[in-house]
Amino acid sequence: MGNMMEPDLPKPEPAYEPKFDPMLGFPNGRKERTVKTTKEEMESAAIPPHLRDYCIDDYMQFLKCRQDRFPFVYKCKHELHNYHNCEFEDFVLRMKEYEREARLNKLVESKQGA
Asked: Which residues form a coiled coil (predicted)?
């Protein structure tokens, strides 16, 4: 009695570190992705950690709209659409980065084999 078992929750994956220079192949450089929302604002709004990504600004606008128009939250469809669109664009960008890394790995392997 009294024994507590730790639940079998998956451990979070470590942050991905690219193997290649992110500026490789971009002669004019790349636009740096930034977030305007501060960590304090996220904590005060009680944003869960899994939602704290590059789309947090759009999510915060959606939450503000919901708060401003409370009984009529259906009027915040535009803000919700912006948030979902940002999430989709972030997903596409991450997939492009994954494919870029895969192509560069294949190129390195072909040069080592030749």
From this structure: none
What is the distance between the alpha carbons of residues 100 and 93, in angstroms, rounded to a whole number? 10
Indicate the length of the chain as a whole number.
114
pTM: 0.76
The band of 6, judged by pLDDT with boundaries at 50, 70 and 90, is low
C-alpha distance from residue 13 to each of 17, 82, 87, 98 (Å): 12, 28, 19, 16
- 36 phi and psi angles, rounded to 5 deg: -85, -30
Give the span between the Cα atoms of 106 and 100, in whole angstroms: 10
